[in-house]
């Protein structure tokens, strides 16, 4: 927040000691003077001015002003925002007054990007995307990728995939992979997997499923159901019999009969019916 002391508030309007309009707006927010809307977030209350909010966001404009006559009510508005992260919204609010997207960190940029999408603030959304592209690294790439997929930010998704392919560590072996949303994992499996072993892909999917079950306190017996939609992405027939026996069978994803049929197909000793969720591609990935 902007803070600056005035010579004498009793003899001069407090705005007169600030040289720029942006400074005056930030000071207006900091003081809460003439506020006509109170924003209630989880554990935090913020005073603001509905005209400023409406100027920045068509969503807030519609919420804060009457759809019929576009005139504000006389009484101050009490406005709940329980679903928005308090720190990120406080930053967003200050941005509405100062106009400069000086983002402090990647986690904040991710949260603000979600809010910018929610409130249809296109310029801020673009600024967040640019900031995230400039601050991508091996540690945060999957976290940013997850958000980019959910926000349908194609340019940022592409940049994340480029970085993921250039990292020395396979993304399916990283802890961050387990934290992906279901949509992001599905997108990753459809767009990333080249030069990755089927064992790594399978183990990554299993680790993701176990993490999801553990986070919900669900029964581990539900693992197959949790990851079933991703299993067709694994080329089990491109594995060796040793890889399948050592890594797949102990996971108890397949019944004994299904595992036996897959092994028969791997060895090509004879034809056997494959489980419906089993990919029929035998080729190694390029």
Number of helices: 13
Strand order of the largest sheet: 2-1-3
The average pLDDT score comes to 84
Order of helices and strands: HEEHHEHHHHHHHHHH
Distance between the termini: 52 Å
Task: Please give the share of residues in helix.
Answer: 40-55%
Outline: elongated
Percent in strands: under 5%
Largest sheet: 3 strands, mixed
Which helices and strands, and how do they pair?
Elements: H1 21-31, E1 37-41, E2 44-48, H2 50-56, H3 58-64, E3 77-80, H4 86-98, H5 106-118, H6 122-134, H7 141-150, H8 154-166, H9 182-191, H10 198-216, H11 223-227, H12 241-248, H13 256-267
Parallel strand pairs: 1-3
Antiparallel strand pairs: 1-2
Helix pairs in contact: 2-3, 4-5, 5-6, 6-8, 7-8, 7-9
Keywords:
286 residues, mainly alpha, three-stranded mixed β-sheet, 3 strands, 5% strand, elongated, disordered N terminus
Write a brief caption for the model:
By secondary structure, the protein is mainly α. It has 13 helices and 3 strands; from the N terminus they run αββααβαααααααααα. A hairpin with a 2-residue loop joins strand 1 and strand 2.
């Amino acid at each position: 927040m902007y803070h600056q002391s005035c010579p004498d508030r009793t003899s001069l309007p407090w705005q007169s000691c600030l040289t720029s309009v942006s400074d005056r707006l930030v000071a207006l927010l900091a003081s809460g003077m003439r506020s006509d809307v109170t924003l209630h977030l989880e554990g935090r209350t913020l005073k603001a001015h509905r005209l400023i909010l409406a100027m920045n966001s068509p969503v807030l404009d519609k919420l804060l002003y009457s759809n019929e006559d576009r005139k504000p009510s006389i009484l101050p508005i009490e406005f709940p925002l329980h679903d928005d992260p308090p720190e990120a919204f406080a930053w967003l609010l200050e941005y509405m007054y100062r106009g400069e997207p000086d983002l402090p960190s990647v986690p904040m940029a991710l949260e603000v990007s979600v809010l910018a999408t929610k409130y249809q603030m296109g310029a801020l959304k673009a600024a967040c995307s640019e900031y995230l592209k400039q601050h991508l690294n091996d540690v945060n790439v999957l976290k940013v990728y997850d958000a980019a997929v959910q926000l349908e930010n194609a340019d940022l998704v592409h940049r994340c995939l480029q970085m993921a392919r250039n990292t020395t560590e396979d993304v399916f072996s990283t802890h961050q992979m387990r934290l992906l949303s279901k949509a992001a994992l599905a997108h990753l499996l459809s767009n990333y997997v080249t030069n990755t072993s089927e064992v790594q892909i399978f183990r990554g999917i299993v680790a993701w499923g176990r993490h999801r079950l553990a986070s919900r306190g669900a029964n581990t017996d539900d693992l197959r159901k949790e990851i079933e939609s991703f299993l067709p992405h694994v080329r089990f027939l491109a594995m060796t019999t040793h890889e399948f026996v050592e890594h797949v069978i102990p996971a108890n994803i397949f019944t004994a009969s299904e595992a036996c049929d897959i092994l028969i197909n791997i060895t090509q000793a004879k034809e056997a019916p494959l489980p419906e969720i089993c990919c029929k591609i035998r080729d190694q990935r390029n």
